[in-house]
């Protein structure tokens, strides 16, 4: 990210939203709303303003496990390292203004609209962690049941506990830890898909990490199927078992809390053994929740007129033969926007998306098939049914009748089937051609 | 459709390739029925 920010010719718009996209491959116009930070680019990220700010609140970056001020930098390695003011929380005391040595605070800053002319678009909206329903496996009900993302923050050196493993109820180091896999995934009631083995690998990684720091920790992973598919993944999994991490193939029947110690009692059965239901006690339970499409991705779906698959991720051109491009020429997908995937796979797809679009862009010309709809404007009754029925936004009603954008048009013919005045024809696939075919086929009857 | 499930079309079926099922107009279907076809199936 830092390298991207330093590359000449590469413009980063952070803390911004895409509001509108129009045009077609080679000629997209993108409207971006740069949200007001209330801090100018003179900010050097020194942090003097945070110290004086009296308005505290929930820190989203650390999953709410600590607090941040109303003026803050999104997270330690944020690029660019600029402070921003959360106006929902700011009490307008202007103490930060006095503390700022470079005079970068500007309470009158307004959102800025930037219009860009771009040739192609890569959608890389990423993913969010599935939020289990309250009470499901004790989530949000028992303090020591946390999700994988929360554990990541606890283990992070810049996290709320500065990397020290501490469970939420009492801040003590947990001795026994249970990871529960497939929370909200491979479950027809929540998400039917598997999160591509990512949660399996994260559990292995985190259990190994904890074991490294606290060798006496007793770590168990309760799994449905361990999916360690990928280069060196199986070896990594084997190594973790050698290090003493236990794996139990199980379904969790019940989870209860000891009200005094806040330890969790799990009733489960090893489905590979014959021992029946067992009750085991753990200090900390980590839920390996599914990967779901990033929150707010629906707005991008509408703006770019993309399709989504059943799982809510963006739909690719073809799941096997072309998982990179979308159905719209000039728009490609990268990473978890298309489906759950690991970092390595995301890099592969990101590069593939870039080269797929570069291949389009290096040529000055874009070749289209001539199978396109065309409108006989004299017959057009200007009803607008074609515009309503076009899935590709390729036909628009103008003052003198409907007009086809030959680049956006995919030649499907939905417009002409819906045209009441038969004013639209599809080049090479005209009505009389089909009529002749039907007649010839049925002649023999 | 039948191809992907390794099934066979009946010998009495006559396929016509179209660009998209959205392209099929009612008049084409009516024409086929009018000319003596027993039915019209649209496969997407």
Structural write-up:
The complex is a heterodimer of chains A (445) and B (44). Chain A is built from 11 helices and 22 strands. Chain A is of the alpha/beta class and 445 residues long. Chain A folds into 3 domains: 2-119, no CATH class; 120-367, FAD/NAD(P)-binding domain (3-Layer(bba) Sandwich); 373-442, Alpha-Beta Plaits (2-Layer Sandwich), CATH 3.30.70. In chain A, the strands form 8 sheets. Chain A has a 7-stranded mixed beta sheet with strand order 10-16-11-12-13-14-15. A 3-stranded antiparallel beta sheet of chain A has the order 1-2-7. In chain A, strands 3-4 form a two-stranded antiparallel sheet. In chain A, helix 4 (148-155) packs parallel to helix 5. Chain B is mostly helical and 44 residues long. Chain B has one domain. The longest helix of chain B has 9 residues, at 26-34. Chains A and B meet through helix 10 and helix 11 of A and helix 1 of B.
Describe the SSE topology.
The complex is a heterodimer of chains A (445) and B (44).
Chain A: H1 2-6, E1 16-24, E2 27-34, H2 48-52, E3 56-58, E4 67-69, E5 71-72, E6 84-85, H3 95-99, E7 112-118, E8 121-123, E9 127-129, E10 145-147, H4 148-155, E11 176-183, H5 198-213, E12 218-223, H6 233-242, E13 246-257, E14 264-270, E15 277-282, E16 284-289, E17 291-293, H7 297-304, E18 331-333, H8 343-362, E19 373-375, H9 385-389, E20 395-398, E21 401-404, H10 414-418, E22 424-426, H11 431-442
Parallel strand pairs in A: 8-18, 10-16, 11-12, 11-16, 12-13
Antiparallel strand pairs in A: 1-2, 2-7, 3-4, 5-6, 9-17, 13-14, 14-15, 19-22, 20-21
Helix pairs in contact in A: 4-5, 5-6
Chain B: H1 26-34
């Amino acid at each position: 990210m830092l390298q991207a920010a330093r590359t000449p010719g590469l413009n980063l718009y952070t803390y911004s939203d895409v509001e509108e996209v129009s045009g077609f491959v080679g000629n997209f116009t993108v409207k971006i709303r740069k949200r007001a930070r209330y801090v100018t680019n003179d900010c050097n990220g020194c942090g003097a303003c945070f110290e004086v700010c009296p308005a505290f609140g929930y820190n989203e970056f650390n999953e709410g496990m600590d607090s941040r001020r109303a003026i803050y930098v999104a997270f330690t390695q944020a690029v660019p390292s600029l402070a921003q003011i959360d106006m929902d929380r700011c009490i307008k005391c202007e103490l930060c203004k006095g503390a700022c040595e470079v005079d970068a605070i500007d309470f009158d800053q307004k959102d800025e609209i930037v219009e860009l002319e771009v040739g192609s678009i890569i959608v890389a909206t990423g993913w969010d962690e599935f939020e289990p329903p309250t009470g499901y496996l004790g989530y949000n009900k028992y303090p020591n049941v946390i999700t994988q993302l929360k554990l990541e923050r606890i283990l992070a050196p810049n996290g709320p506990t500065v990397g020290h493993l501490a469970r939420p109820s009492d801040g003590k180091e947990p001795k026994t830890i249970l990871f529960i896999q497939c929370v909200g995934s491979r479950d027809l009631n929540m998400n039917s898909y598997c999160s591509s083995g990512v949660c399996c690998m994260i559990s292995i990684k985190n259990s190994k990490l904890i074991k490294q720091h606290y060798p006496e920790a007793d770590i168990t992973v309760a799994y449905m199927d361990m999916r360690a598919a990928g280069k060196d993944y199986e070896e990594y999994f084997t190594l973790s078992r050698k290090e003493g991490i236990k794996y139990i193939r199980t379904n969790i029947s019940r989870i209860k809390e000891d009200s005094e110690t806040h330890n969790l009692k799990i009733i489960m059965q090893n489905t590979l053994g014959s021992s029946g239901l067992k009750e085991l006690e753990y200090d900390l339970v980590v839920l390996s929740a599914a990967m779901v499409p990033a929150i707010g991705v629906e707005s991008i779906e509408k703006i770019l007129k993309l399709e989504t698959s059943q799982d809510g991720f963006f739909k690719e051109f073809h799941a096997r033969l072309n998982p990179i491009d979308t159905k719209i020429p000039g728009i490609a997908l990268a990473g978890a926007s298309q489906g759950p995937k690991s970092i390595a796979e995301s890099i592969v797809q990101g590069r593939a998306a870039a080269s797929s679009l570069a291949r389009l862009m290096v040529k000055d010309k874009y070749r289209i098939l001539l199978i396109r709809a065309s409108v006989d404007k004299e017959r057009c009754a200007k009803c607008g049914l074609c515009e309503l029925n076009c899935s590709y936004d390729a036909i628009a009603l103008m003052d003198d009748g409907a007009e086809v954008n030959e680049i956006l048009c995919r030649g499907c013919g939905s417009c002409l089937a819906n045209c009441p005045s038969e004013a639209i024809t599809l080049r090479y696939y005209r009505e009389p051609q089909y009529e002749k075919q039907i007649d010839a086929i049925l002649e023999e009857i | 459709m039948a191809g992907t499930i390794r099934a066979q079309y009946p010998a009495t079926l006559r396929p016509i390739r179209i660009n998209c099922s959205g392209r099929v107009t009612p008049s084409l279907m009516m024409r086929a029925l009018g000319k003596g076809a027993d039915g019209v199936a649209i496969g997407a």
